[in-house]
Write a structure and sequence with these properties.
Blueprint lengths: L1 H15 L1 E3 L2 E3 L27 E7 L7 E7 L7 E6 L8 E8 L2 E2 L2 E2 L2 E7 L7 E8 L2 E8 L10 E6 L6 H11 L6 E4 L15 H14 L4 E2 L20 H6 L15 E5 L2 E5 L11 H9 L10 E5 L16 H13 L4 E4 L5 E4 L2 E2 L13 E2 L5 E5 L20 E5 L3 E7 L4 E8 L9 E6 L16
Parallel strand pairs: 2-23, 12-13, 13-14, 16-17, 17-18, 18-22
Antiparallel strand pairs: 1-2, 3-4, 4-9, 5-6, 5-10, 6-9, 7-8, 10-11, 12-24, 15-16, 19-22, 19-23, 20-21, 24-25, 25-26
Bound molecules: 2-acetamido-2-deoxy-beta-D-glucopyranose (4 copies) and fe (ii) ion.
One 2-acetamido-2-deoxy-beta-D-glucopyranose (NAG) binds next to loops.
């Protein structure tokens, strides 16, 4: 039955896909999900006096042996301790890590007490329980540390962006969580969309924290900042960019010698992940530029074969929305991406899905007129995955005709799965929300640029 449905859906897709210059613009008609926010009341805080809420974790060091646990207590600063222990074996060996506590005001909003505790020196590939709160108001969660970094360590990342907190966002998150393979999330920016509400109503940051807790309390989300994290509003005297985001989401940026949480790197299993900020200076001599220049030589592909970059504003995008907004960053950094054979770049910002060919546009200089992207086996594949389903709705106006650099594009909400098998092969899939998780609307065997730099076969081949 399932197989029949699968084949029927596939053939419908093939029939409906418009092919142009080798690229595909899917004509899939999505059922409409309301891009309106789920009411604040739906995301009520957990029961109990001062109960810890908005629990989230992320990697806490450069190699995956630490975890940053973050949570909010609404009424009192304490308790600020996370208790943790190995899931298997002797539960008597409980450990405690203490949190630093921060809070902030934004216009007339006052945050709860925001806690960040770094649990260090964990064992690799081990399940831990952790507990927050005290007395009769405790909450228990768990996570599994990644395997030790190494070239052939399989690992599966989910990829989401521009999530927000609408009925469509809900569908995206549920859909991702129904995939048992995802071990960590690469999040390409634009979290709560609080800034789309009057006075950037920061209650929306709290409700978003409650909304995503069911995933991010149990597996790390690797954060990247988008424009909706800026919360820059001089008209209400809020002049510090990224204020709510930086208070709420801590990342291990010092572990990669970064001077800002907005750009940093981590290693996880067989992947080296570089996170960049589209909304911080990246011109020559700036901190981010200098950091990235020093960062690429540190990547050892014999240790971490897969080189992945996260950034918010896409460099290759054939949608009318946000068209060419990533261009100035592309001009600055693309030669490094090609020289260093980045495997894949995940971006968000555009509320649709798109996958590029392996192309580069680095031969251009202002006198030679060579301004078109060309096929380049050393170039990354660029994925735009800003299709989490936020309050701003879908970006359904693609430029026509479809440019040759665009391999597949579709105006639907969804998420991706990036499944590393070994140093040479990874299986990549994109899942639109309206179908069973087993179905991938776009899928591709990716070949590692360092170990196996062959041309990938035509997309659409099923596993
Ligand atoms: C916790 O205990 C207090 C006092 O004993 C009680 O009032 C409260 O309802 C309890 N809370 C929960 C969540 O059980
Ligand atoms: C903040 O100010 C706005 C506009 O005056 C008002 O609607 C809102 O209720 C205020 N919120 C708080 C928490 O005071
Ligand atoms: C621009 O490209 C042309 C053709 O490759 C080359 O001859 C020229 O030296 C380049 N100019 C600069 C400033 O690099
Ligand atoms: C790597 O994984 C791919 C896909 O599962 C497989 O075909 C290939 O043989 C593997 N390579 C090695 C060296 O095991
Ligand atoms: Fe954005």
């Amino acid at each position: 039955m399932a197989a029949m449905w699968f084949i029927t859906t596939l053939s419908l897709l093939l029939l409906s896909a418009g092919v142009c210059n080798g690229g595909v613009t899917s004509k899939y008609v999505r059922l409409s999900e309301r891009s309106v926010d789920i009411p604040v009341g739906y995301f009520s805080p957990p029961p109990g006096f001062n109960a810890p809420e908005q629990v989230h974790i992320t990697q806490g060091d450069h190699v995956g042996r630490s975890v940053i646990v973050s949570w909010v207590t609404p009424l009192e600063r304490h308790p600020n301790v996370v208790t943790y222990w190995e899931a298997e074996g002797n539960h008597k060996h409980k450990h405690a890590a203490h949190a630093i506590i921060t809070d902030y005001r934004y216009f007339n909003y006052t945050s709860g007490y925001i806690h960040h505790a770094t649990i260090k020196r964990l064992k690799y590939d081990t399940k831990y329980f952790y507990e927050l709160g005290e007395h009769n108001v405790t909450r228990r969660f768990s996570f599994t540390t990644p395997p030790k970094v190494g070239p052939d360590v399989p690992y599966t990342f989910g990829v989401m962006g521009d999530l927000g907190q609408t009925y469509a966002s809900f569908s995206t998150l549920e859909h991702y969580m129904s995939n048992p393979k995802g071990q960590a999330v690469l999040f390409v920016g634009d979290l709560s969309y609080a800034d789309d509400h009057p006075y950037h109503d920061n209650v929306k940051w709290d409700t978003w924290g409650r909304f995503v807790e069911k995933s991010v309390a149990y597996q790390p989300w690797i954060w990247c900042a988008g424009n909706h994290e800026l919360d820059f509003a001089p008209e209400i005297d809020e002049n510090i960019p990224f204020k709510p985001y930086l208070h709420r989401y801590h990342v291990p940026y010092r572990a990669s010698q970064s001077t800002s949480p907005l750009w940093y790197s981590i290693k996880r299993a067989s992947a080296y992940i570089i996170v960049l900020s589209s909304y911080s200076a990246y011109g020559k001599y700036t901190p981010q530029y200098n950091w990235l220049q020093n960062e690429f030589p540190k990547v050892d592909r014999t240790e971490t074969p897969w080189l992945i970059v996260l950034l918010h504003s896409p460099w290759y995008n054939s949608n009318n929305y946000h068209y060419m907004e990533g261009e100035s960053m592309r001009v600055m950094f693309e030669p490094w991406f090609v020289q260093n054979k980045v495997d894949i770049v995940f971006a968000g910002h555009v509320h649709a899905y798109e996958r590029s060919e392996r192309i580069s546009n680095v031969q251009y200089n202002i006198t030679d007129g060579l301004s078109a992207p060309v096929k380049d086996p050393s170039a990354p594949i660029y994925i735009t995955i800003g299709d989490g389903g936020n309050i701003e709705g879908i970006a359904d106006l693609f430029t026509e005709p479809q440019p040759s650099y665009s391999a597949y594009r579709e105006a639907s909400f969804g998420h991706s799965i990036f499944e590393i098998k070994n140093r040479s092969h990874a299986y990549y899939t994109w899942h639109r929300n309206h179908e069973n998780e087993a179905i991938a609307a776009d899928s591709l065997w990716l070949y590692n640029r360092y170990w196996y730099p062959y041309e990938e076969r035509i997309s659409g081949t099923m596993d």
